[in-house]
């Protein structure tokens, strides 16, 4: 006999993880591309990033796409693993997502660029995290 499912337990529908990851990543990509294209007009200059031992450079759009799509599939793998190991994978996944998002907000402030560019990058982190987390949270059976 199986135990009844409570409000805090959710069985994952694994076959939906990859399509939901793709949808969350795509939604995040669209919004982040819009932010990346609009932000320079609002902050009075290009959004710039730096790589180790290199000068500042304008944020390439391919980086925006990759930074929105790749984490979606990593997050799907984490959620799949949580579904195999825990009884409340969605809730634990959401907590992990919030913690990682908050931690990711510190990284733009390490770039020697304008405050406007740093805040734009933080906004893009939040948009990607929210779209991915909300999409994958729909993986309940």
Order of helices and strands: HEEHHH
Give, in spatial order, the strands making up the sheet with the most strands.
Answer: 1-2
Structural class designation: mainly alpha
Q: What's the total number of strands?
A: 2
Oligomer: single chain
Number of helices: 4
Rg is 17 Å
Q: Please estimate the helix content.
A: 55-70%
- Mind summarizing the main beta sheet? 2 strands, antiparallel
What's the rounded overall pLDDT mean?
A: 90
Distance N to C terminus: 19 Å
Task: Determine the strand fraction and express it as a percent band.
Answer: under 5%
- Any idea how many domains? 1
The outline comes out as elongated
| Unreliable parts | 3-9
Describe this structure in words.
The protein has helices at 17-43, 61-85, 89-104, 115-136; strands at 48-49, 57-58. Mean pLDDT is 90; it is low at 3-9. Helix 1 (17-43) packs antiparallel against helix 2. Helix content is 64%, strand content 3%. The protein is elongated and about 50 Å long. It has a two-stranded antiparallel ribbon with strand order 1-2. The protein is an all-alpha fold. It has one domain (14-48, 55-136). The chain is built from four helices and two strands.
């Amino acid at each position: 006999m199986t135990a009844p499912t409570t409000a805090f337990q959710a069985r994952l529908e694994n076959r939906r993880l990859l399509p939901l990851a793709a949808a969350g990543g795509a939604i995040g990509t669209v919004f982040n591309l819009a932010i990346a294209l609009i932000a320079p007009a609002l902050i009075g200059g290009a959004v710039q990033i730096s790589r180790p031992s290199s000068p500042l450079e304008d944020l390439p759009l391919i980086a925006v796409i990759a930074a929105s799509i790749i984490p979606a599939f990593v997050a799907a793998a984490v959620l799949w693993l949580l579904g195999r190991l825990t009884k409340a994978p969605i809730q634990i996944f959401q907590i992990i997502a919030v913690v990682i998002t908050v931690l990711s907000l510190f990284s733009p402030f390490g770039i020697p660029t304008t405050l406007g560019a740093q805040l734009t990058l933080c906004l893009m982190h939040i948009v990607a995290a929210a779209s991915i987390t909300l999409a994958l949270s729909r993986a309940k059976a």
